[in-house]
């Protein structure tokens, strides 16, 4: 299997926003930074990929299978986490886990205990008692406890302090080394400098470029005319249409 995730011309149209055809692919052990400013369409694209909103056109293949035709089976093998969102905030972690494990045929208690210890999570705490960083670690623990081969993370470092973000980026790299594919949506370019292998840039609902990070930076460095960081590139792209 060459690619873990293949997205082919996904589109979604609302009255005030249109996601134009989006296509990209992710390999096993690869971290893709899905980048663009707030409102660019990153969340719409992710929800369309996962059929959380029904795309108007296009198709998605995950782990070699058509997503719509094999949605239940594929969900057993992927993880999805959103930063800055609280689920069951008054429930203890162990109570959420007791419910969650029922839905996964390959839930692994040994893996759950491993990540619980690795992330220093106290399962007797309530969600509302966790820091933003610990919440993200808990959602990752749920995904990794059923051996997810693909993690789709929508702004997972949103609201985290720089130290916590750096820690999460290190976790993403270690997971990638174990063969987990990660789609990492963010507008925080410094995170991607540290952990991304590839960059996919979206602006106003349109995919501009999807390339390996070095090639992406090289492409826009030539356009800008000087050595550039991802932050420089983002500012360049988003300021093109500003008229003062």
Automatic annotation (TrEMBL):
**What sections of the sequence does the record tag as coiled-coil?**
none
Tell me which domain of life the UniProt entry assigns to the organism this sequence originates from: Bacteria
Alphabetically sorted, this entry's keywords are:
ATP-binding, Nucleotide-binding, Transport
Q: What is the name listed in the Swiss-Prot or TrEMBL entry for this protein?
A: ABC transporter ATP-binding protein
Is Transport among the key words of this record?
A: yes
A GO molecular function held by the record: ATP binding
PROSITE patterns reported in the protein's UniProt record: ABC_TRANSPORTER_2
Q: Which InterPro entries match?
A: AAA+_ATPase (IPR003593), ABC_transporter-like_ATP-bd (IPR003439), ABC_Transporter_VariousFunc (IPR051782), P-loop_NTPase (IPR027417)
| One Pfam family recorded for the sequence | ABC_tran
- The residues covered by the ABC transporter domain are 1-229
């Amino acid at each position: 299997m060459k690619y873990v995730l293949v997205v082919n011309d996904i589109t979604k149209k609302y009255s005030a926003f249109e996601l134009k055809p989006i296509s990209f692919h992710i390999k096993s052990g690869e971290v893709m930074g899905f980048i663009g400013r707030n409102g660019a369409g990153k969340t719409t694209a992710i929800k369309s990929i996962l059929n959380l909103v029904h795309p108007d056109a296009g198709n998605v293949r995950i782990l070699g299978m058509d997503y719509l035709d094999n949605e239940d089976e594929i969900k057993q093998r992927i993880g999805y986490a959103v930063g800055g969102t609280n689920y069951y905030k008054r429930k203890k972690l162990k109570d959420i886990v007791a419910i969650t494990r029922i839905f996964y045929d390959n839930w692994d208690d040994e893996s759950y205990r491993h990540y619980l210890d690795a992330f220093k999570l106290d399962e007797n705490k309530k969600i509302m008692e966790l820091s933003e960083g610990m919440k993200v670690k808990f959602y990752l623990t749920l995904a990794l406890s059923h051996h997810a081969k693909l993690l789709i993370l929508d702004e997972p470092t949103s609201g985290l302090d720089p130290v916590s973000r750096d820690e999460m980026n290190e976790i993403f790299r270690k997971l990638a080394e174990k063969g987990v594919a990660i789609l990492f949506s963010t507008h925080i370019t410094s995170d991607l400098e540290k952990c991304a292998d590839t960059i996919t840039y979206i602006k106003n609902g349109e995919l501009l470029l999807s390339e390996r990070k070095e090639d992406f930076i090289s492409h826009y460095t030539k356009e800008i005319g000087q050595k550039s960081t991802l932050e420089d590139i983002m500012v360049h792209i988003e300021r093109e249409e500003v008229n003062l």
